[in-house]
Amino acid sequence: MVTALENFGTLSGWGKEHHNDGFQNFKEVPTWDLHHATYTSPYVQFSNKEVQNHDFQPLDKFEGDEQAIIDTYNPQAKWPWLYINGQYAQAGAGYSPGLLQGQAFDALYQQLMSGTHNDATQAVKNEARLITSYICHSTGGQPEVACKS
C-alpha cells in the first residue's frame, strides 16, 4: 500500500513496525507504522486508523461514516483492511505474511529499494501494482505517469 500511495502523493512521518510474535501464528512480520504519518496528494485522500496497539489496547476510533463502511464491507473486522472509493475493498493482506516473517524491517526495505528479486519482494511489488491499478481506476487514470504502467 505504501508503494502504491507514493505513486500519487507524498507519505511522511512513517516509522518501522512489526506485528507481535505469534499473533495469528506468525513470527514477527515487518511492516510500516503509519499511525502518525501524513499523506498529501491532489488525487488521493488517505486515512489510516490503528484499532489497537501491541498490548491490544484501543488506539483510534472510527467516525460514524467510517464505521458504517466497515460494518457493510468488513463486518468481521479483518485486518489489514483497504477500502478505495467505494469501488474496491480488501480484508487481509494481499499475500501471505509468512513471506516476510522473521525479517528485519531495514533488511526487507533495502531489498525492495535495491530491486532484489525473491518471493517476499515480488509479493510486495505485485500487491503494490494491484493497489496502484485500483487507485488509477478510482482517479480516472490520473496522474498519467502512475497509471500508464
Give a brief description.
It contains 5 helices and 6 strands, in the order αββββαββααα.
Kindly describe this structure:
With 149 residues, this protein is an alpha+beta fold. The protein has one domain. The chain is built from five helices and six strands, in the order αββββαββααα. The relative contact order is 0.17. The model has no long low-confidence stretch (mean pLDDT 89).
Kindly name the structural category. Answer: alpha+beta
Radius of gyration: 16 Å
In sequence order, what are the helices and strands, one letter per element? HEEEEHEEHHH
The backbone outline, from C-alpha atoms, is globular
Instruction: Detail the poorly predicted runs.
Output: none
Helix content, binned percent: 25-40%
Tell me, rounded to a whole number, the average pLDDT: 89
The major sheet is characterized as: 2 strands, antiparallel
The share of residues in extended strands comes to 5-15%
Integer count of domains: 1
Distance between the termini: 17 Å
DSSP, total strands: 6
- Helical stretch count? 5
Biggest sheet, spatial arrangement of strands: 1-4
